[in-house]
Amino acid sequence: MNRSRRNQRKVRRKLESIGYLMSLPYIxxxxxxxxxxxxxxxxxxxxxxxxxxxxxWVGWGNIRFLIHDPLVWKALWNTFYFVLIHIPAQLVVxxxxxxxxxxxxxxxxxxxxxxxxxxxxxGVVITILWQQLYAQDTGLLNRALTAVGLPRIPWLTDxxxxxxxxxxxxxxxxxxxxxxxxxxxxxxxxxxxxxxAALDGASEWKQFWHITLPMLNPTILLVLILxxxxxFSLFIEPYIMTGGGPANSTLSGVLYLYKQAFFFNRMGYAAxxxxxxxxxxxxxxxxxxxxxxxxxx
Length: 297
Fold this sequence. Notes:
This protein is 75% helix and 1% strand. The chain is an all-alpha fold and 297 residues long. It has a two-stranded antiparallel sheet with strand order 1-2.
């Protein structure tokens, strides 16, 4: 009996050691590319470092500079402005397309693939494409306007239009991914709910409002969270299309972080901006979750 137990313990320890061995590559990858960079960035928050010279301790200096840096708050406002345009547009367009593609429409498989295609194409390629569409003199949009006798629109050179123009492009690029999420949510709703509502005389709008939306709440929350994280990570679009201009009207937090790190070699301050941005994302996502869950409850 005791021998049998000892054999069982040996087998269990052997299986556990195999499990640890199998997970070792992931653990090493996480330590090398996750934990170490995060810990090093946190150390940089309290140091001044330009890559070439040794780090210098500055204590709370970077944090005090961030609080009084007007460009940080300008970038924060620009990001909120982008998110306020981008997220509602993305929700409405993605849900509308998902509703259409969830119906027995001829060729819907092809349409699903077409809508998802921009998601898998390089963001740099799409941004350059839209930069050409928005071009003041040679852009396709302005050429179409002038063809019907309308004036050209400075899509990317007017500080009032630059960020909305970027938001439209970002919505077009990402909407296919959220269409897929909404399709999954729609197809998980039991058809019996709609059949019972139809028997009670409920119109399609009432069915959508009282069945579809409440049942899609987890998907809507997921879309809100992912869109918010994506909005606060805005970088490629303003970097390529406007460089943060005109007059810093498209300067995003990540773009400002990039400039501080790789244009001015202020690694400590860039790390401080990064942690500040992560904190802002956490707060906004937390508020979104509370509001959405409260509305459903």
